[in-house]
Write a structure and sequence with these properties.
five-stranded mixed sheet; alpha+beta; 22 helices; single chain; Cytochrome p450; three-stranded antiparallel sheet
């Protein structure tokens, strides 16, 4: 062999060894104290592990949170577990502690508005837009939040009660049709259409007619529904799924959504200019913009109206038009999704928990009268006394709070850029500081809100009674301010323990908590109050109630009917019932 060939033959193994050493150092080096790393391979990182966990579960429709829980529990449930999906994605730190999650979400010297949102949100850009309040940060986000706060103030939301009841009445008519048909149907579509109708009124002060026949619906509704369907995960984790054809379809539908929204924006902008230049009572014509010096309390407070008032210009530039479009997209997405998921799971749990349904109906009888019907309840909620009646629905609020705990619609992902030195302190007296910059920080609400160390051995059970005396979901409410003496005595008798505020976070916490949480709670209370008295829901397929040989439902030891097979969430951007919540709707016999 020639000398050059000999040298090459000797160099190849050395080069391979060098490359292997570099890859090993890149994959396994740089471990940080205080966090637990999930098993990973040199070539596939944590990807193979996730695939194996899905295979062990035997159902690729499961939401990834179920897989993360299996992993975290197999490692002894540490507060932080790191998964490595490089080079395709980031290293992801799964947060399994409410105390750590709180440090990530709260304001700090390094991040005054909390840790920035993760770039992994970019896959949602067709739904929310580049300028979305959900993904921007810093002063830009602060300005947007300040602009829209008046539209979600409790006093303003109370004025929307008649509009919410009006949309709920259409929902009731659709449920009536289902009850008369005797055929099962997916509640998902009905609930989504209802909440889309409501958020259309809140964001743009228009009727989208989402609950009517398809031909009568706004084109915006049809485009948006099809766009959401492109995010359905058909199998396995969504982390590595890519479909060029679906991406192309998504772009086309995004264009349709934005075209419809721009038409609405331009029409309302033109109307606001016309109104601003109209003669006043003295016959004087003004030429001020839409944010003129009229009484601020009299100004429209829809999201679109607030956006146009902030723009304060006679001509909408392309940038303002796109920013406003992205704003509306964001509120349409977040505003309809959470509440529709909450409603589906609430109806399901009430259908298999007879004592909870009885307690809910008892509360409705107490607040609205023993002879009340869904119609009289709707009328009462639309009346001037509606806001006061809503506040009295404490058990209804407990149902909402428990449903959001057990079935959180979504979590939050943040990322502190490398080099920022962002640290958290681990829970426990001896917990040290851990640097987490560079990681995607996944505050996993499904894990945090089912923590047995916080919620006890029944953490996986749906128990609304755990929130008696603490059913308020408002961000700034102190529990002691809303408890009466009997409720405080009941808590003391139970050991004086209350759930830490940071352990319930379906709307997240800190400065970037969900601006629409008061609206979601208001909607849900109205809808449950109007429907719970009128209907009985019966699950079909997965989650159906088990019956004995006489055909009677089998009541389990914990006061819930046993089911033939479990229900679970799948992923379609957020966590949703995998079967669309297939239900048979029946009229409540006492209301027949």
């Amino acid at each position: 062999m020639a000398p050059s060939g000999t040298l090459l033959a000797a160099a190849v193994p050395l080069l391979l060894w060098y490359c292997y050493s570099l890859a090993t150092r890149w994959r396994f080096g740089g471990k940080r104290d205080g966090v637990v790393y999930a098993p990973r391979s040199l070539l596939f990182g944590s990807g193979k592990l996730i695939s194996d966990l899905y295979r062990a579960r035997g159902d690729t429709r499961l939401h990834t949170d179920y897989i993360f829980r299996d992993l975290v529990e197999s490692l002894g449930s540490p507060p932080i577990v790191v998964l490595d999906f490089r080079p395709f994605l980031y290293e992801i730190a799964i947060i399994n502690s409410h105390e750590v999650a709180e440090q990530i979400a709260k304001s700090s010297k390094t991040f005054p508005h909390s840790v920035p949102k993760s770039p992994t949100m970019d896959h949602m850009l067709p739904l929310i837009g580049e300028h979305s309040v959900l993904r921007t940060g810093g002063e830009t986000w602060k300005g947007l939040r300040r602009t829209f706060n008046p539209g979600f103030a409790p006093t303003h939301l109370a004025t929307l009660l008649p509009r919410i009841v009006e949309k709920t009445s259409i929902f009731v008519k659709n449920l009536d049709k289902l009850a008369r048909s005797g055929k099962p149907s997916a509640l998902h579509d009905l609930c989504v259409n209802l909440t889309f109708d409501i958020i259309g009124a809140v964001t743009m002060d228009i009727d989208l007619n989402a609950q009517l026949e398809i031909a009568q619906q706004s084109p915006l509704v049809r485009y948006y529904r099809e766009l959401m369907e492109t995010y359905t995960v058909s199998g396995g984790s969504a982390l590595f799924q890519a479909d060029p054809l679906k991406s192309w379809r998504r772009k086309q539908l995004t264009r349709g959504v934005e075209t419809e929204l721009r038409a609405i924006i331009l029409a309302q902008h033109a109307e606001s200019l016309t109104n601003a230049s109209a003669p006043d009572q003295n016959g004087t014509t003004t030429t001020t913009s839409s944010s003129s010096s009229k009484d601020p309390k009299a100004r429209p407070r829809s999201v679109l109206a607030l956006s146009l008032q902030e723009a304060n210009t006679a001509t909408l530039s392309p940038h303002i038009l796109q920013t406003t479009t992205d704003t509306l997209k964001s509120f349409l997405f977040a505003g309809h999704d959470t509440t529709s998921i909450l409603l589906q799971w609430s109806f399901y749990e009430l259908s298999r928990t007879p004592h909870a349904l009885r307690s809910l109906r008892c509360e409705l009888a107490t607040v609205f009268g023993a002879n009340s019907t869904s119609d009289t309840i709707a009328a009462a909620l639309s009346s001037p006394s509606g806001p006061d009646l809503i506040k009295r629905l404490t058990y209804t609020s407990a149902i909402i709070k428990e449903t959001l705990r057990v079935y959180p619609p979504a979590s939050t992902a943040r990322r502190a850029p490398p080099g920022t030195g962002f640290t958290v302190r681990l829970p426990g007296g001896g917990g040290g500081a851990v640097c987490l910059d560079g990681f995607v920080l996944y505050n996993c609400h499904y894990l945090v809100q089912r923590d047995r160390a916080v919620y006890g051995e029944d953490a996986d059970e749906w128990v609304p009674e755990r929130w008696v005396g603490d059913a308020d979901t408002s961000a700034g409410t102190r529990v002691d301010d809303v408890l009466d003496d009997d409720q405080k005595a009941a808590i003391a008798a139970a050991g004086g323990k209350r759930v830490p505020a940071s352990a319930w976070r379906p709307f997240e916490r800190g400065p970037r908590n969900c601006i629409g949480q008061e609206l979601a709670n208001l909607e849900a209370r109205v809808i449950l109050a109007v429907t719970a008295w009128r209907y009985d829901f019966v699950k079909v397929g997965a989650g159906a109630v088990r019956t004995d040989v006489q055909g009677n439902p089998v009541l389990g030891a914990k006061g819930q009917y046993e089911v033939v097979s479990p229900m679970f969430n799948t992923r379609q951007v957020t966590s949703k019932p995998f079967d669309g919540m297939e239900m048979l709707v029946k009229f409540n016999e006492t209301q027949a």
